[in-house]
Amino acid sequence: MPGIDIRICVNGEWRDLTVLPYERLVDSLRERLGLTGTKVGCGEGECGACTVTIDGKAVLSCLTLAVQANGKQIRTIEGMGQGEELHPIQKAFVEEGAAQCGFCTPGMIMTADAMLKHDPNPSEDKVRKTLANNLCRCTGYDKPVKAILKAARNMGKSD
């Protein structure tokens, strides 16, 4: 089957790829670009481990074909910080002990990033509802919620 040429901007860098028509974005990111921070969990859009942002919106990359991302801006967990400097959401996750096994953490952080771009001062209830699409078996969600609220406060101070 012939490939399809696409051009995507991943973490600020434009990349040209030839993908298969049925290739999932998560597979392109992990296997073609080596961005393994985006996890493959259920592969059915139920767990949120594969969440990335496309044009600022949280998207499940296991349900998104790579060709659907053509011409778009994609951000993965690898694109969150600046060099060794953690993004405020990442920093808050560390400070609050919000990552235990860490498998769900990239998806949660990407979900939080998209939410905070649209609502920089969310309520605890909104954070909990937004994270409901990210399955976590370790944290009980309390620490990630606290981390996201802390990040929102800290990001508001830097504006």
Quaternary status: single chain
Q: How many individual helices? A: 5
From the 3D structure, determine the CATH topology of the largest domain: Ubiquitin-like (UB roll)
Q: What value does the average pLDDT take?
A: 95
What pattern of helices and strands is seen along the backbone?
Answer: EEHEEEHHHH
Unreliable runs, pLDDT <50, ≥5 residues? none
Number of domains: 2
In whole angstroms, the N-to-C terminal distance is 49 Å
Strand content: 15-25%
Main beta sheet: 5 strands, mixed
Instruction: Using the 3D structure, state the CATH architecture of the largest domain.
Output: Roll
The CATH C-level name of the largest domain is Alpha Beta
Assigned CATH superfamily of the largest domain: Beta-grasp domain
Question: How helix-rich are the residues, as a percent range?
Answer: 25-40%
Number of strands: 5
Going across the biggest sheet, name each strand in turn. Answer: 2-1-5-3-4
User: What is the structural class?
Assistant: alpha+beta
Gyration radius from CA atoms, angstroms: 15 Å
